[in-house]
């Protein structure tokens, strides 16, 4: 029996404030720019929005700040904050609100000027009591610890981690909106400046400014909208820890829970996916998520990504915009996975387009491998 939410809501508008460096612009201005672009893409205006979903590392009460700045009075708002995966979870929350009739047009939006105001990647808003005495460099030290453990347990190599960065860069070279498009080789990754063992500079995501937004409506309305809808077929989230030191097993993320539940809601399986958009804050992320979401067995992720398998021309397209490693990463990247998935389903990705894409998985990650949210989207043919 199909889940009651399967296909009941769709993304009908996407927008970016595609400014990887935006001096003089603050976070909420970039959020607003992306929001207006997404609404224009959908053929709607701010006056149509009655559902608001957002999260922020800059604003204590993000829905209040965003609504005030946008000049809207939503009948339903949600500021759920589980890190960079928040906006993927907002897809599910918005679908529930739409289906319940609590709103009619849901705007999910985000903005950050992280690069301009400091240029540092910081994801810990409060001291982590069991870890702070050891003075880790957040968040990179935590992810490096997970990578080291995976290498120890499964023999994953530095070269295999580098394959992830190189694949992302090759996709970015096909994306005119990507921030980093220079050639990148495995040797470049291995020989780059060390950041936190075993990571070098290219194992770590970009630090950029930017804004992103999507618009959702109920499916009965989506068919009459300006753009080809991308229907939400399944979504689920899970979180097992906050601090990396509390992670039950550093080689197994909560994606191993969110993924199966999202696939069950969608009535699909990993082999049904045409394109994957994974939150690649660090190279180990892609390997862990491919394993935990069921695309390969645990411990085989390093071998799985080798030989260009996830790069352009490979058998499994992963992070087709260049991902957080080469396209954009303004503090929280989750909404960008959704936007690229929607664009692939629309068939509007130019040189990087996956021919005939009908299904797409967008997966968000928050904290230090803490919160995991999986969403599955599809074209009308998948309903």
Automatic annotation (TrEMBL):
It comes from the Bacteria. GO terms for molecular function: acetyl-CoA C-acyltransferase activity. Coiled coil: none annotated. Residues 237-379 form the Thiolase C-terminal domain. PANTHER family: ACETYL-COA C-ACETYLTRANSFERASE, NON-SPECIFIC LIPID-TRANSFER PROTEIN-LIKE 2. This is Thiolase. It comes from Futiania mangrovi.
